[in-house]
Amino acid sequence: MRDFAYHQPATVPDAVALLGSVSESRPIAGGMTLLPTLKNRLASPSALIDLAGLPGLQSIEERSFGLAIGALARHADVARSRLVATRIPALARLAGSIGDPAVRHRGTIGGSLANNDPAADYPAAALALGARIVTNRREIPADDFFLGLFETALGPDELITGVVFPAPKRAGYAKLRNPASRYAVVGVFVAETANGIRVAMTGAGNGVVRVPEFEQALATSFAPEAVAHLRLAPDDFASDMHAEAAYRAHLASVMAARAVADALA
After folding, report:
1. With 176 labelled, which of 53, 120, 143, 258 sits at a CA distance of 20 to 30 A?
2. pLDDT digit string, tens, across residues 171-221
3. CA-CA distance, 264 to 245, in Å (whole number)?
4. CATH 3.30.465.10 region(s) of the chain?
């Protein structure tokens, strides 16, 4: 790990100003992804801007349409929130499946979305539920936010301050966990929303994606059997030490069926 400066801004505008003025600086909240990359010298920022102490970004609030969750809400906060369990229970279950207790008590929803790890859980929920990512400058629909491998629509001096989740009619999530990291080898989030069926998949390739084949099948019949035997082409799936592309393509149908069963339970 190389030397770097360390800043603890007191407000969001202060944090944004530091990011804009300190060259090659990086924001950090829980640090669940950034710290390992620093230790392995895969990143070498000139400064870390610590967001953990920023006030007003840990809230979980009810809205007429769903939930507004602050960017610094921990995974554990979302998992044990009665409000989340009531309005979007699949989101609470997803949060409770992230990592281990240490990760859930340090990692934040804003950090997960901003990092956009291709095997992270929250991007699948945000995309399937049609969430809006709120920043210090604007609101970005989830459909426009996730651009690719570790890439988002955030500008260099733009910070996530919260996420707005519309409450679905019903939703479910299922994933095959990597036994070491608990990241999704393949994870599928299914939601029946006011605008129809939305299905998002994580862990399969270079980032979270919608799955129109599953959406069309479930629009006809919202049942596990509608997707259990659908086979996606393995061409766009990743192959690595954890799973080959053909196996991930098979898992997609299995996890989609389990997610539908979770939504119906």
Report:
1. 143
2. 999 999 999 888 999 999 999 999 999 999 999 999 999 999 999 999 999
3. 29
4. 60-264
The answer to whether residues 259 and 249 touch, using CB atoms and an 8 Å cutoff, is no
60-264: CATH topology: 3.30.465
- Output the six-digit token pair for 141: 């629909």
Residue 18: both structure tokens together: 């530091």
Enter the tokens of residue 138.
Answer: 């604007």
Pairing type for strands 25-28 and 139-141 reads unpaired
**Nearest residue to 72 (alpha-carbon basis) of 107, 46, 98, 41:** 107
Within the chain, which residue ranges are assigned CATH 3.30.43.10? 5-50
Query: CA triplet 80, 109, 145: central angle to 5 degrees?
Result: 140
- pTM over cut 0.90: yes
| Distance of alpha carbon 67 from alpha carbon 164, whole angstroms | 6
